[in-house]
Amino acid sequence: MNLDRAWLADEVEASDRDVVLQLLRGELPAGAELVVERILRRVARVTLPSGVEVYAKQHLFPFLRVRLRYSLRESPSRRERRLLALAAARGLLVPTAIAEATARAVLGPTLAVIVTRALPPGRMATHAEALRAVDRLVEARVYHPDLHPDNLRIVAHEACYLDFQSVVLRHRVHAADRMAMFAKFAAGGARDAAGRLCVDDRLFASASEAAQLRAAVDALDAAGRAARRRHRLRSSTKVVRERAGLCGLRLRLREFDASDFDHVRFGTERDEVRDHFGPCRVALRDDGLMLRLRLRSSPAAVDLRALWADADEMSGFLGWERTAPWPWGTQALYIHAHRQEGLSRAKGRAK
């Protein structure tokens, strides 16, 4: 693969160059550990021959619309390298980029990779530490819109900021931006049984600031639910949209093999499950790890498509399908049996 203006820092040792160039070409060297893998990007942790540990963020461009979006824009890896250098110049503790490259074609980039030196192991920040870290960003005139707990770590009592792909450097960071950054961190932290934030209001200078935080988190939660719903109703980085039979439609999680759906068999008894889903027929896969809920009567009895669209990542829902394109076509919802309350009894009866 031809790399457009590949860049390597002078500190990269000769013994490490071959492995670093492999990473820049989008390859995974022997011993590489995948930390994150999505359809649009993956992050690998690699120990170089010299013993230095690095992270390689490889941006992939599988869709034409994504390539066209960056056809006239700075590549995400080059932008992140530039922003990391500027943030470090402003006194922030951030990873150091040691290599970066972009491969381009006629319609835009086909690969963009940045390799950064790993920082010492850290821990998740407390709310008080996170608020101080956000204030440090405000002082440095840096707006980080994706400051969730994994992107803010405490290393040797100092805040370390990660993932600068979407960061914006500004002349001034306003109070609303400050609260938005802290809300992003708080939204990914601890909640009580009712889903409310576990944040001490005494952290804030006034009650209005605490109320502003909770309003910002509520907005993030609502936006997250809406995004999950959109993603689950179309092909996305997490969901695959495909045919089911001749005319039907199937939506499934990318990490779940669609061939497993074909191994589902219906139980001999038509048991009803009313706990959460209304009247449904239960089917068991041979290994007993997956249940298939299927409507027995009117589609209005249970809207399985709505259940699939509204589910979060922890629901255990694996896929949804309609066997015909019309609204009254039979629906099926695939779920992990052990994740759903009230289904164990039905599972036992079906056996």
3D architecture notes:
The chain is α+β, with helices and mostly antiparallel strands. It contains 8 helices and 18 strands. The longest helix is centred in the middle third of the chain and has 26 residues. The termini are far apart.
Main β-sheet, spatial strand arrangement: 12-13-17-18-16-15-14
- What is the H/E string? EHEEEHHEEEHEEEEHHEEEEEHEEH
What is Rg? 24 Å
The number of helical runs is 8
β-strand percent reads 25-35%
Major β-sheet annotation: 7 strands, antiparallel
Average pLDDT level: 82
Helix content: 25-40%
Oligomer: single chain
Weakly predicted, low-confidence segments: 265-289, 295-301, 338-351
Distance between the termini: 54 Å
Helix-and-strand structural type: alpha+beta
- Mass-distribution shape: globular
What's the number of extended β-strand segments?
A: 18
Could you give a quick summary of the protein structure above?
The chain has eight helices and 18 strands.
Relevant terms:
seven-stranded antiparallel β-sheet, 351 residues, alpha+beta, single chain, six-stranded antiparallel β-sheet, globular
Topology of this structure?
Layout: E1 4-8, H1 17-24, E2 33-37, E3 41-47, E4 53-60, H2 64-69, H3 76-89, E5 96-105, E6 108-117, E7 123-124, H4 127-139, E8 142-143, E9 152-155, E10 158-161, E11 168-169, H5 175-187, H6 207-232, E12 239-244, E13 248-253, E14 264-266, E15 280-285, E16 290-295, H7 304-310, E17 317-322, E18 331-336, H8 344-350
Antiparallel strand pairs: 1-5, 2-3, 3-4, 4-6, 5-6, 7-9, 8-11, 9-10, 12-13, 13-17, 14-15, 15-16, 16-18, 17-18
Helix pairs in contact: 4-5, 5-6
